[in-house]
Amino acid sequence: MHENLTKVLFTEEEISKRVKELGAQIKKDYEGKDLILITVLRGAFIFMADLVRAIDTDEVEMDFMAVSSYGAQAKTSGIVRILKDLDTNIEGRNVLIVEDILDSGVTLKYLSKNIKSRNPKSLEVVTLLLKEGKQETDMRCKYIGFECEDAFVVGYGLDYAEKYRNLPYIGVLDPKAYS
Ligand code: IMP
Ligand code: MG
User: Fold this and answer.
1) Which residues are catalytic?
2) Which residues of 36-58 are buried (b: 16+ CB within 10 A; e: fewer)?
3) 103: Cβ below 6 Å to ligand 1?
4) Interval between CA 24 and ligand 2 midpoint (Å)
5) Among 31, 107, 139, 170, which one is least packed by beta carbons within 10 Å?
6) What is the mean pLDDT of residues 89-115?
């Protein structure tokens, strides 16, 4: 385990197993339909890369958006900026937003509203992690990888000030590492 973590929450093996389950479920639910995964950079990029390989069908496309809500802070600012927009026209498409973690829900609420305004045929959300009891909005996710405790977590794409994204597991960052 990395020395700046207090514990590992989800191991590489646990994540891999869960991502495969999510992929199989998504494949089943979208059988015979087109599907476009919209990944929210940068946190969800590793999750997306594994998830899309677990959705065993030709009918899946992907596109990317980048938003920023935190700066280098470990708490929600409530300000969401689009740093990179989609290249694809998603009107009339079945869209699945791929998120890394749902904390307050502010980022996702903003994103969903933005994407809905482009008139997709359907819109659902898959999030790898959901922080228990933290959601301030009525945002709902159809697919959830894991629920996790209310701590600042890093690894498997999740960062603190752009670091730790490359850890193959997810763990709790020691508050000493950011105070
Ligand atoms: P929300 O708007 O409060 O739901 O925050 C969502 C975004 O903040 C996520 O997509 C992450 O990029 C980031 N975030 C929230 N909690 C954590 C965390 O524990 N570790 C790393 N990033 C986080
Ligand atoms: Mg982030």
Assistant:
1) 103
2) bbbbbbbbbbbbbebbbebbeee
3) yes
4) 26
5) 31
6) 93
First to last CA, the chain: 20
Among 46, 103, 154, say which to mutate for ligand 1: greatest number of ligand atoms within 8 Å of CB.
Answer: 103
- pLDDT tens for 44-96 read 999 999 999 999 999 999 999 998 765 555 555 667 888 999 999 999 999 99
**Measured distance CA(21)–CA(51) in Å, rounded:** 9
For residue 30, the model assigns a pLDDT of: 97
| Residue 107, ligand 1, Cβ within 6 A | yes
Cα 95 to middle of ligand 2, angstroms: 21
What is the spatial distance between Cα 95 and Cα 86, in angstroms, rounded to a whole number?
12
167 has pLDDT over 80: yes
CATH architecture of 13-153: 3-Layer(aba) Sandwich (3.40)
